[in-house]
Amino acid sequence: MSPTTAATASALRRIFLGKAAAIATMAGLLATGLATPLAAHAEEGKLRIAQQFGIVYLLLNVAQDQKLIEKHGKAAGLDIQVDFLQLSGGSAVNDALLSGNIDIAGAGVGPLFTLWDRTRGRQNVKGVASLGNFPYYLVSNNPAVKTIADFTEKDRIALPAVGVSVQSRVLQFASAKLWGDKEFNRLDRLQVAVPHPDAAAAIIKGGTEITGHFGNPPFQEQELAGNPKARIVLNSYDVLGGPASATVLYATEKFRKESPRTYQAFLAGLNEAAQFVSANPEKAADIYLKVTGAKTDRALLLKIIQNPEVQFKVEPQNTLGLGQFLQRVGAIKHKPESLKDYFFDDPLTARGS
Predict the structure, then answer these.
(1) 37, 98 in Cβ contact below 8 A?
(2) Looking at residue 298, what is its pLDDT?
(3) Residue 52 pLDDT class (50, 70, 90 cuts)
(4) How far apart are alpha carbons 234 and 238 in whole angstroms?
(5) CB 87 within 8 A of CB 20
(6) Can you say whether residue 77 is alpha, beta or left, with left for phi > 0 and alpha for psi between -120 and 50 degrees?
């Protein structure tokens, strides 16, 4: 078994954990627009949230630990049962949302645009909130790779989902800026879908076909600290024009309409989590370690949380440009003109971009 195959096999074993093991994969159907969602009825007081790997999901970790969603539910006279599912990759998350196995999806803004575009006039998937602004780094351990133009057929770039994840979309955006819109997917052929923990291990250890990883915190920082050959090849902020909300939460219109109190309790709880992290970075780091069981160095976590480039807030920022790029190159059909097109209208998020 080749190193890449081994990494991929390991990745597949990690994709569905706990209750997520019961989720049926419909990626092939979704890719062709033929996926048919199960007839699921949203129910007040029940909330299933899908999250992935990394400290970018810290607000959900804090909300889970502090039971903030339940707190705001009680304030509204509602007992809410909250379940958190662990998935890997925007494709798996989108499949779960369309099949009715989750209510709130946590993934990159790239998967949001994909699903918003494909469900217009049907499930009407839109954004609920941002999980904050984080710079995402494309890291390589290949000394010959200093820019994305240096990757060759010998290199493989690991990311959560090829052609769908926000990392893949940002790389496409960067490619279009370098080689022109017609070459936006030039590097897709070098991409492999691998969960962040496995990809980080490959970059730190070296010796595999995976020489690049477009990840997120804390995995990118672990790579830079763990392998002296590792370097930043691309920063998402440079591509997107400044601080941007790369990871977001989204849901179907059906859920929002049928569970309005649950929806509002979730959003209020998430907003309180953002305020908590900003005011209590050390406690937030401890919560992340406790909830995720991660073995990440605490000092490294705290450094990420306190990084001036990182902002914890539910209001999305600097997302529209990516969506308009995706429409321009034909990755999505509909052009988003403003945040209201692809985000539900709510006072906590309405002033986003």
Answers:
(1) yes
(2) 94
(3) confident
(4) 8
(5) yes
(6) left
CB 182 within 8 A of CB 18: no
* SS3 assignment, position 231: strand
Dump pLDDT digits (tens) for 104-154: 999 889 889 999 999 999 999 999 999 999 999 999 999 999 999 999 999
Residues 6+ apart with CB under 8 A from 171: 138, 148, 157, 159, 187, 191, 214, 234
Amino acid 267 reads L
pLDDT of residue 42: 57
CA atoms of 224 and 327, how far apart (whole Å): 34
Rounded CA gap, 147 and 171, in Å?
12
Per the CB < 8 A criterion, the answer to whether 118 and 58 are in contact is: no
Q: How far is CA 44 from CA 77, 178, 207, 251, in A?
A: 11, 48, 51, 15
Provide the CB-side half-sphere exposure for 70 (13 A, CA). 10
Bridge partners of residue 234, in order along the sequence:
138
Angstrom distance (rounded) from CA 266 to CA 129: 10
For the stretch 233-291, pLDDT in tens is 999 999 999 999 989 999 999 999 999 999 999 999 999 999 999 999 999 999 999 99
Q: What is the pTM of this model?
A: 0.82
Closest CA to 288 of 15, 59, 18, 84: 59
3-state class percentages of the chain: helix first, strand second, coil last, to nearest 5: 45, 15, 40
